[in-house]
Amino acid sequence: MNNILVPLGTSPDAHETLKYAIDFAADFGANVFIMDVYQVAIGAGSLGKVEEKVEATHRENIKALVAEMDTKSVDVKIASYNGDIIDGLKEITKELDINLIIIAPRSNDINEELYLGNTSGRIVKQTNIPTLVVPKGTGYLPIKSILVAFKSGILKRSKVLYPLISIMRKHKAGVNLLLIKTPGYTEDDLKINTALLDVSKNLIISENPTTYHGVLEHFQAKNPDMLCVFRRKRGFFKKLWEKSTVLKSEFHATVPVLILSVKKD
Predict the structure, then answer these.
(1) SS3 76
(2) Per residue in 9-35, pLDDT tens?
(3) Residues 72-111 pLDDT 10s
(4) Handedness of CA 103, 258, 219, 173 (dihedral sign)
(5) H helices then E strands: how many in the chain?
(6) What is the pTM of this model?
(7) Going by DSSP bridges, is the β-strand pair 174-181/31-38 parallel, antiparallel, or unpaired?
(8) CA 121, CA 41: separation in Å to the nearest integer?
(9) Backbone torsions φ then ψ of 219, nearest 5 degrees
(10) CA-wise closest residue to 104 among 136, 79, 81, 72
(11) Are 175 and 164 in contact (CB under 8 A)?
């Protein structure tokens, strides 16, 4: 993981997410790009100047925030985009070869009932870049135990595991696999890719209505430092992610959640 992107909202807790990302990047020898998104209509004459002023103001505010932090020699840069955040993410991640996005569960929302706010929910739902969701107030600490939950052991490309493997090796973490047999599963789903088995020390097979229910059943027993799931078209959080926001009453993780790319079509 060489390049990490941090979409920085206007939340008063944004500095916590940025601090976590900088500490994470320092540990992995990565660069940090702060994504600054604003929306200003582009037009002739004065409107173009308005856009320049808005971008300049945002940059100065971000620079002031970074100046107050211990960047630990991490190269921290600002990537600005005028427009919708999802369009910006797709353009910036491609241009800068982003390997990981780090976000807070909710961005500009102040509703404490939400786990994923509208912005963070859209990022998780509408992009395919590996994403680390870091709960509010979480400091960067050694990760000794990772629970990987999935409903199918099929991997189309082993490289989707790279972020998980990098974190596992860096922290010498133990990885527990949780294969959840949901209604309608096939025998092929039970065939676990060797690349996934190679990273694990233990395999649990559980029968539950959904992958999400399986995680709820086994999360407390394993007490992991990190939960890892796959972003799939019909996978974990399917019901929860039908809308952008996710309530804490529906799902709430007190540890970082690593969401890997789509693992099969």
Answers:
(1) strand
(2) 656 677 888 999 999 999 999 999 998
(3) 999 999 988 887 878 888 888 888 999 999 988 754 444 4
(4) negative
(5) 7, 12
(6) 0.83
(7) unpaired
(8) 25
(9) -60, -50
(10) 136
(11) yes
What sign results for the dihedral spanned by CA atoms 107, 128, 167, 191?
positive
Q: Report yes or no: 171 and 142 within 8 Å, Cβ to Cβ.
A: yes
Pairing type for strands 131-133 and 257-260 reads antiparallel
- Identify whether the C-beta of residue 32 lies closer than 8 Å to the C-beta of residue 76: yes
The answer to whether 14 touches 58, Cβ cutoff 8 Å, is: no
Residue 240 gets which letter from DSSP? Answer: G
Q: Is there a contact between 149 and 236 (Cβ–Cβ < 8 Å)?
A: yes
Tokens found for residue 145: 């135990």
3-state secondary structure 152-174: CCCCCCHHHHHHHHHHHHHHCCE
d(CA 134, CA 256): 5
Nearest to 26 by CA among 77, 79, 93, 75: 75
Question: Is the sign of the CA dihedral 239, 242, 248, 251 positive or negative?
Answer: positive
**HSE value, Cβ hemisphere, 13 Å, CA-based, for 108:** 9
